[in-house]
Design brief:
The protein is α+β, with helices and mostly antiparallel strands and 462 residues long. It is built from 20 helices and six strands. The strands form two sheets. The chain has a four-stranded mixed sheet.
């Protein structure tokens, strides 16, 4: 490769050495926690139209393969990755690597599970490959995510593709040169617009990123040649950030960025989470609130602050800062149930949202917000949250993940939800992939599941 392509070769070498690299226990545990979150949000999205339409459409393609499509049989790896990646981002409840503002697990775990199951991969190899994909996302996307978002580009559609290609290349055991071409092939497909936020197209970005990552690695394995120089400064970064305000940082794979991942306790845009934390704390205080002024990061203001507080759809509600604060002030958990179809905005949240003003505050980072509160008795108080729950410094651990997992997965599982959770928590123990896929393949189909029983009871009473 030319000198300008050495950066891609460095990334390719990192990917190619995945299975010879020693992975600390906490890194592997972090990958499992990402898998638990991925399974939860994917299962919880059974009724989401975006996921249903994608899996029904891809089902008509009739692709052949051993990869599980959740709620819809099996397919070729690329097709399963598309369907499952879309499903995993439907609720907008999946994890985020904040420095790249990328929803990493939705595309990368979708890729790893599809290829791993299709080829009968070893679970340890799958965990290591996921970590490789995550670390590539982190190194390429670090510092660029906010710039892309401010320019109307969805980082998940950019870096999620490249991370998926890295994970797929690792799992397929491509050599460094082939892996570099896989990453470059993914990079040339980079896409996704923030104008799509609040619509079905946003979760589709994650699914398409997974599909294109699989495709890129499979092409590279067969000798496909791309342009590795696109991963050097002046390549993809210049194409996306044309004023040169930011460019790729030097590649340094020292350490483990997966340990700095963030998980969502709330089923809404990550940018509203610190304000929701503060709103829920105010509700717990039980005070009469006359007015709230929310000060949030400029990015949060750009993406979520312009909404009216009266969302017309549940997807729009997830990106409505006023309404999400209103849910918190009304004492709601801001869970998937708060954004369910058929859409009926909570009257108490709408009323609370009317009392909320929002403003950008350059002193607020991604995980910070402040609520300036005027109480009914005239008192004034400021409540600042930094960092929000789920971020490094205030992380979600296994004990925190279980309530989220149980609430999302239990309604569609016929078996013991805790059994699936334990399979994931110990993923790589003998038979864990088979146990995981067996439960995923029956999800939503058994008449003894909680949702099926509830639907039957409603039909009987109606």
């Amino acid at each position: 490769m030319s000198t300008e392509s050495e950066r891609a070769l460095l990334a390719g070498r990192y990917v190619a050495e995945t299975h010879r690299r020693s992975h600390p226990d906490d890194v592997i545990d972090a990958a499992r926690l990402c898998l638990a979150d991925w399974v939860a949000v994917a299962l919880g999205a059974e009724d989401e139209d975006a996921g249903r339409i994608v899996r029904e459409t891809t089902g008509r393609w009739g692709s052949a393969g051993n990869a599980t499509v959740i709620f819809a049989g099996t397919a070729a790896p690329a097709v399963a990755a598309l369907a499952n990646g879309t499903l995993a981002h439907c609720l907008d409840f999946d994890d985020t690597y904040i420095p790249a503002i990328t929803h990493t697990s939705a595309p990368v775990w979708s890729t790893v599970l599809a290829i791993g199951e299709h080829h009968g991969a070893d679970e340890w190899d799958m965990l290591r490959s996921f970590v490789a994909g995550f670390e590539v996302v982190a190194r390429l996307g670090q510092g660029l995510g906010q710039e892309l978002t401010a320019r109307g580009l969805h980082s998940t559609g950019v870096f999620g593709r490249i991370g998926s290609a890295a994970a797929a290349a690792a799992l397929l055991r491509l050599d460094a040169s082939c892996a570099a071409h896989a990453l470059a092939t993914a990079a040339t497909q980079a896409s996704g617009l923030t104008a799509s936020f609040g619509t079905m197209a946003k979760p589709f970005h994650a699914g398409k990123a997974a599909m294109d990552g699989v495709l890129a690695a499979e092409l590279a394995r067969s000798g496909f040649v791309a342009a590795p120089a696109t991963l050097s400064p002046g390549g993809l970064d210049k194409a996306l950030i044309q004023d040169g305000a930011r460019s790729f940082s030097p590649l340094d794979f020292t350490g483990w960025q997966i340990l700095n991942n963030s998980f969502k306790p709330y089923a809404a845009c990550h940018l509203v989470h610190p304000a929701v934390d503060a709103a829920r704390a105010l509700f717990a205080g039980g005070a009469d609130i006359r007015r709230v002024r929310a000060r949030v990061s400029p990015l949060a203001m750009q993406i979520t602050g312009g909404a009216s507080g009266r969302p017309a759809t549940p997807l729009a509600a997830k990106f409505d800062l006023r309404y999400c604060i209103g849910l918190g002030l009304a004492g709601q958990p801001v869970s998937a149930a708060d954004f369910a179809e058929p859409w009926r905005p909570l009257p108490a949240a709408l009323e609370a949202a009317r009392r909320v003003d929002v403003a950008a505050d350059a002193t607020m980072g991604f995980a910070a917000a402040a609520l300036d509160v005027e109480f009914g008795d005239g008192r004034k108080e400021t409540l600042r949250v930094e960092p929000a729950k789920g971020h490094p410094g205030n992380p979600m651990r296994w004990a925190d993940m279980w309530p989220k997992f149980e609430a999302l997965a239990a309604p569609v599982l016929a078996g013991d939800t805790s059994k699936l959770f334990e399979i994931i928590r110990t993923f790589a123990a003998g038979g864990s992939l088979a146990g995981l896929t067996a439960m995923l393949r029956t999800a939503g189909k058994d008449p003894t599941s909680r949702r099926a029983r509830a639907q039957a009871a409603a039909a009987a009473s109606g």
